[in-house]
Write a structure and sequence with these properties.
Two copies of one chain form a homodimer. Chain A is of the alpha/beta class. In chain A, about 20% of the residues lie in helices and about 40% in strands. The mean pLDDT of chain A is about 95. Chains A, B: Involved in 1,2-propanediol (1,2-PD) degradation by catalyzing the conversion of propanoyl-CoA to propanoyl-phosphate.
Chain lengths: ~210, ~210
């Protein structure tokens, strides 16, 4: 084999090996949330009957979280929305996460808040098969956020609680600022936005985003 | 008056004058569009009766454009939406501008297009008081755009047809890319987005945006 052929062979080998080099993947899968409800045990009792067990129908991507068979009607001063899904497990305090779009229909102003930040938020009436209750507070528009493990936080160079900007590609693309990082030992990597935010940027359940800070 | 007092006096004068210097305002008002319909004369005839005149109830910000008293029901393969507003004046071809949110309810996939770019877009059934018609095409999600005069285009350093990025401030802020500049001699300065895009970024009719390119 002459020098020329040896060179070609070597080049081919190097190119082939090069093809195996993996570029680190910094893309983040998207989870799109529709309006939903988290309930306390007391409120489950009032709406479905004492001791009623919520029925899991589907695990969600975050460990331990699931969608329930049960739904409720939520009623504000101007209108009602039926078939709003309950997510489990039960929580210390009930919380209703709605869309900005829903605020007009229900006739209430919900603030953009992180899950659990319920101080001073408006209330709403929940109607179930065995009763209805008026929540004194707990209606929010969920602030977009990214769940991730502590290892991923290190890999992305971010920390729990930090606000980052995310980039969405495509004709309807752009950036969303103030996306909260929620990093802990158990979380699965996923960026949570609601259907308003998904529709405005044409994001689908298969979409991925990147952090641009 | 000593040197010190003279200096203080002069400083005060300069500061006062400085306060009068006007910073040029590069902010752009926002117009938020809900789903709506533009109709051809033939389609008005079919839906409302031969020669029926559409009734103007409100001028829109763009010269010559107005909201009509009349509404229609739009029907896709999966569902219908009632009370969809007709905007005047009549056009050469009917066009139905819906939201991404509506696509799920109606059961159709509308592409993001500039007004008038109807080639290959899906059709829809329109139901009026005197008849219904099946449009062969014309359903779009309006691509966000900024109307402006040629003078404003020059001031912003953009040209008709250019795609720019806009910046929205606030907790739910961010940027929208691919906003089309529509500059001509008659347009009023206004950035048109739809309710999905407004809700995702918490924009209100009083909001302003800026071009960041």
């Amino acid at each position: 084999m002459g020098k020329y052929d040896a060179l070609v062979e070597l080049l081919l080998e190097v190119v082939k090996e090069g093809g195996d080099i993996k570029q680190e993947d910094y893309s983040i899968p998207v989870g799109i949330s529709n309006r939903h409800i988290h309930l306390s045990r007391n409120d489950v009792n009032a709406l479905f009957g004492e001791g009623y067990p919520l029925t899991k129908i589907k695990d969600l991507s975050q460990p331990g979280q699931y969608a329930c068979k049960e739904t409720l009607t939520i009623c504000g001063p101007k209108g009602a929305i039926e078939n709003v899904r309950i997510l489990g497990p039960e929580r210390q305090e009930s919380q209703v996460e709605i869309l900005k779009t829903d605020c007009f229909k229900l006739g209430l102003k919900a603030p953009v808040k992180l899950s659990g930040e319920l101080q001073g938020t408006p209330g709403i009436t929940l109607v179930g098969p065995k009763g209805s209750i008026l929540l004194g507070q707990g209606v929010i528009i969920a602030q977009r956020h990214i769940h991730m493990s502590l290892e991923n936080a290190q890999r992305f160079g971010v920390r729990d609680g930090e606000l980052v900007t995310i980039q969405i590609s495509g004709l309807r693309g752009g950036t969303y600022a103030n996306v909260a990082v929620r990093a802990n030992t158990t979380s699965q990597l996923e960026c949570h936005i609601d259907t308003d935010e998904a529709n405005a940027m044409e994001l689908a359940p298969t979409s991925k985003i990147t952090i641009v800070k």
